[in-house]
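Worked example

This section walks through a single chain of length 240. The input is the sequence exactly as stored; nothing has been trimmed or padded.
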Amino acid sequence: MDFKVLLADDDAAMRLVMRKIVEKSDGFTIVGEASDGEEAVKLAASLQPDVVFLDVEMPKLTGVEAARAITEENPDTAIIMATAHAQYMPEAFEVYATDYLIKPFKVERVHQTLTKLRILFEKRAANAAAGKQKLLIRNHDGMVLLDVGDIIFIQREEGATEIHTTDGVYTTADSLNKIWEKLNPSLFMRSHRSYIINTSAVKMIYPFGRWTYLVKFKIGDADALITREKFEELQAILEN
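Given that input, the structure is written out below as tokens.
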């Protein structure tokens, strides 16, 4: 699925440059162009773009004014401000701009921004899908149907598997491997031979021995283990 991009700049030549850059970026499609801030707001309301490139200095509404109006309508819209004047940067970030491009900018700089946004959008989609997914587990009491998005972490210990969720702990004889096959790797990580963690639930990570770290979660007091190798992988995921 391609993510929708709206371009807004009163300079037609700059819009052409941006169009060519975006067209060469995987996962994005331009759905509209505006030559002033007022038109940008109207197009954003009708087209519902995922990303809006806004020139700061435009007629009718400035880029900052347009950004405020667009994010009030849809707070999830990623705003990328562009201008030749760096002094506008603080004002741009006041409206929660995702990035700020100083003209003239390098093509690779725009590609880097779009790549980060694509990873972010894909992660959001995966989290939303995982939240709707169900996991059926069996234990001595029968069967339990869990919302995958509620799982914080899973631990295998002494022949039993404990699934820690936002509303309690569930035990099953199913192996970690069997459960791992049913989970979305965009949301979950096999952090240790005895643990699977929900990466979006991680709060803090502490050193724990020479080759291992301790993972604390946003909910509950229980913790999990993560190897140094997986810690580096998780760090890269959380930084994107």
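What to look for: Residues 72 and 95 are 10 Å apart (CA to CA).
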